[in-house]
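Notebook p. 47: complex prediction with cytidine-5'-monophosphate.
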Amino acid sequence: AVTQDLAGRHVVVTAGGTREPLDPVRYLGNRSSGRQGYALARAAAARGARVTLVAGNTELPDPAGVDVLPVGTARQLREAVLKVAADADAVVMAAAVADFRPAVYTTGKIKKIDGVEPEPITLVRNPDILAELSADRLRPGQVVVGFAAETDDVLANGRAKLARKGCDLLVVNEVGEDKAFGSAENEAVVLAADGTETPVPYGPKEALAETVWDLVVPRLAGPRG
Ligand code: C5P
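Predicted complex, structure tokens below:
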């Protein structure tokens, strides 16, 4: 039997990638499969939590016993998280939220016109949801966890990002052509705001999910009631 160390807790997990529309038929997306976030949601449910999964683009089936809220853009993901995380004990931001979106949404399909070069796409920043949740905790003692996909100087960039975002835990993994995105396996280091660093060897995303909850549980505020 699985230890029910999340019994009585509400956790919010985000997963998948956001899609930032350019026009009614085109968007900027990313290669997130949603697998890590879904593994986190399933693991939390098995450990007794009430789980709300805010899901960007993914092809995965809804996990049993989990409330799934589908979203499209980063701004929709932010709205959904702010609503459902108000009473959450922990929020795990595993979604690949687009850092940027097209500055302009064109309401009609952008047309190809003979002899006319296309307009460049101008990007603007999306709100940083993880930084916002970390700076203005929705409830006292809420544990906030982020993910960071880095291609180089993985640990140094991860430590800097943990400090910049202000979250409690940051799961750092190296991404590359065949690493992390879309794969069933992951290798990571979990950095904590208290300075502890927990390496997680290459293995199934389910194993990394369990390690994340193992690190969240001792950081949760005392049980309510
Ligand atoms: O800044 P970067 O995109 O590398 O940070 C990744 C982490 O921040 C992930 O946990 C992701 O869910 C979160 N994020 C966010 N809002 C954004 C961009 C990323 O919450 N606009």
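Notes: The first strand starts at residue 10 and ends at 15. Residues 74, 93, 95, 97, 99, 126-130, 146-148 surround cytidine-5'-monophosphate (CB under 6 Å).
Next step: compare against the earlier run before touching the bench.
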